Amino acid sequence: MVNIEGYTGGAAKTLVEAGANVGDKIRLSVEGRVVVGRLMPRVGSSSDILTIKLDNGYNIGVKSSKCKIEAVYPGSPSEHTSVRGETQKAGLIRGDGYVSLVSTGGTIASRVEYETGAVKPALSASELIQMVPELDEYARVRTRVLMSILSENMRPALWSEIAHAVYEEVGGGSDGVVVATGTDTMGYTAAALSFALKGVGVPIVLVGAQRSSDRPSSDAYTNLVNAVSFAKSGAARGVFVCMHSGVSDGESMVIEGVRVRKLHTSMRSAFQPVNAAPYAFVSGKSISYVHPPGTRGVDELDFKPNFSEDVSLIYFYPGVTPRKIRSMTEGSKGVVIGGTGLGHVASDLTDTLSELIRSGCHVFMTSQCLWGRVNMNVYTTGRRLLEVGVVPLEDMLMETAYVKLSWAVANFEWEKVPSVMRSNLVGEISERSVLTTQVHRSEGWT
Amino acid sequence: MVNIEGYTGGAAKTLVEAGANVGDKIRLSVEGRVVVGRLMPRVGSSSDILTIKLDNGYNIGVKSSKCKIEAVYPGSPSEHTSVRGETQKAGLIRGDGYVSLVSTGGTIASRVEYETGAVKPALSASELIQMVPELDEYARVRTRVLMSILSENMRPALWSEIAHAVYEEVGGGSDGVVVATGTDTMGYTAAALSFALKGVGVPIVLVGAQRSSDRPSSDAYTNLVNAVSFAKSGAARGVFVCMHSGVSDGESMVIEGVRVRKLHTSMRSAFQPVNAAPYAFVSGKSISYVHPPGTRGVDELDFKPNFSEDVSLIYFYPGVTPRKIRSMTEGSKGVVIGGTGLGHVASDLTDTLSELIRSGCHVFMTSQCLWGRVNMNVYTTGRRLLEVGVVPLEDMLMETAYVKLSWAVANFEWEKVPSVMRSNLVGEISERSVLTTQVHRSEGWT
């Protein structure tokens, strides 16, 4: 059976006859209309549909039986291949270095099954690049498929696997590393890499899409181009998320990995910084920094890729009982609480937390308010929690605190965990005196 | 011992000699300086300090031994009394009706212990009114002290108690009811009253303060005046939260009780609407409605004040195990999950949830993103959860869903709970087609 990068049947026959291949620009006449665009990898299982990416970024599907390929303009010769766990240079443009694209799955690497309307992870990193041939203009990109999972299935052991892969890419000489991942738990993964790769000397940029790559409204294209552009720039050090800014169609916002949270289920601008300003805005080759990158520290890379699953996150709510807290935390070496307001839980839980601490479990407090700082000295409730040994974590995001605890328990001696948690390692805690005038705006979320 | 509304010792002696009482405007000379202001109820345990509220809203403390009361301008004759569980008319101004102020505790009814710097709930509803004598201009206010707790100790059984008290006030002829409560769990309580008092014909307004009433930067004064103003207006029906808008010093934002969330630990503008526009803005007697109040339904009051504690809220995170979910939900009649993104959890939890459902527990899905709507048809993970019987709750806030479940389990037959949960009863679910252009802005939260 003829199979041209996934095309079979009538579609493959049409391509063979025209001498066209995926990545080529082609001109088609479709029932009298002329369409010019780039041939994309096969989408769905229909054997008669060609997928064409138009210059405006939209994809269309064209029945091969109803069109005629009039001209073919070959794309750049591509060496992209997707070999599990193996990296290859693309060599598309000359430069001092290259950007590594590590794919873990998620919507950005997904396509719609047109039969069911559902989205499934299906694209390899190299297919991703083929869908966005414009990346040629930004960097030599080498690709690596590490895993292919939806990010709700991400877990501490997999953060460790991703950290190892990124570490290898950095060691291999990349100017920057782009990690394509699902958006559901992207904030957690960004925090995990921030701690595992503390002091990394190049930008590590997590990128994803809220809408799959083959949908017209997809943000995959913009986010990927901007992430590669930011990674290639090499001006920033550390771990970031690069997602749609919500301001203009082609703009992405770069946010520090320990300060980012998904705050909308479906909007492209779902990712917002919490208790921090955005780090930069990227629109193709134009990068504007909110914080000048020169102000970041220049530590040595301190690679600590382990994460423990013996920790728990407890979200307090009115009516939660001591029994539930005890059973949820059984066997945990550490617990992060998402308390109310300045860092509180109901008074009838104080004894439970005290017992937990005396049994050898570290207990930390964050706030489910998300924004702001815990302060357990203001009210009696907070002071009693401090007295029994609950440790407040300043303005650290609840989710970041959970990830950090998973990391601290796995990489440090038990006694050192509280001081590690209370130290600002990669920007996860800000000093009280630091105030910025940057405005957080979430337009149109009603 | 002489005791003038809490003042004792030298302070009481000074007041007796001058013929001054709490609520009076007095002119003092303090070491050569002249101070004019209203005498406030006693703050702290010192027997020599008078608390004076200046015209600019700030409170100062003056040593009675170092000042001389030069003139007394009596305040309005007050009939406020604080009798537990009993309501009394104030009769301060003439009007068609009155506003009830039900106090449950919290920062708005707290004062700083100057000895320790900590904040403790201490003010009764009538003391609150005495601290804000300007309320005379807005409504006849009758007061009722229901409980005095910090709101982290609020729980389903207490929601029921508050619902009963509000029901009695409405039945007693109030134009509106203001409920003073702590901010930590104010959103949960607002949702609880929204369901318990479905169809209520007058405004029920929850109000609190981020900073205690006797602090210069307190928002207690503004919020209380605006809450009473909004409650007295009688134009709106239903349950609302009225807290500082963050825009100008004297302005509060009114938000629907099922759409409100505390989103900052310390800022006065911590309360924001989620998946909804603000309902109104209030600045003294000026009320501007975002939604014209006429558009609300005019149901009969359907009083269902019961809440069950046999329900659980599960906040998903990467690494949470089936064992933890099982132990946390043991014995629950219903569970609300705060999933990731469009409504997901890790695939290895699907079987656990399936078992839970088959054992007779209802399981509902919301998103920890807060903003946006769950949609479990897009990804395989979501569709599998639907298949095992997890019920998606559209754009309902996670916390509102938990409160509603606690209410639904207590007031409806077990079989009816899922359809009750999926029905929009008081604005907690919006239709997909409803879009507003109102902009959510959270200025300066960085």
**Oligomer designation:** homodimer
CATH superfamily heading of the largest domain in chain A: L-asparaginase, N-terminal domain
DSSP strand count of chain A:
24
Radius of gyration of chain A: 24 Å
Largest interface: A-B, 82 and 82 residues
Could you name the ranges of chain A where pLDDT drops below 50 across 5 or more consecutive residues? 76-95, 433-446
User: How far is the first residue's CA from the last residue's CA of chain A?
Assistant: 52 Å
Taking the sheet with the most strands of chain A, its summary is: 8 strands, mixed
Mean pLDDT of chain A: 84
Total number of domains of chain A: 3
| The CATH class of the largest domain in chain A | Alpha Beta
Class of secondary structure makeup of chain A: alpha/beta
The coarse silhouette of chain A is elongated
Any idea what the CATH architecture of the largest domain in chain A is?
3-Layer(aba) Sandwich
Looking across the biggest beta sheet of chain A, what order are the strands in? Answer: 9-6-10-12-13-14-17-18
> How many helices of chain A in DSSP terms?
10
Notes on the protein architecture:
The structure is a homodimer of 446-residue chains. The first copy, chain A, is of the alpha/beta class and 446 residues long. Chain A folds into three domains: 9-73, SH3 type barrels (Roll), CATH 2.30.30.520; 99-303, L-asparaginase, N-terminal domain (Rossmann fold); 311-422, Rossmann fold (3-Layer(aba) Sandwich). Chain A is 23% helix and 24% strand. Chain A has ten helices and 24 strands. In chain A, strands 9-6-10-12-13-14-17-18 form an eight-stranded mixed β-sheet, with helices on both faces. A five-stranded antiparallel β-sheet of chain A has the order 4-3-2-1-5, covered by helices on one side. The first copy, chain A, has a four-stranded parallel β-sheet with strand order 20-21-22-23, sandwiched between helices. In chain A, helix 5 links the parallel strand 12 (203-207) and strand 13. Chain A starts with 8 loop residues before the first helix and ends with a strand. Strand 24 (440-442) of chain A pairs antiparallel with strand 24 (440-442) of chain B.
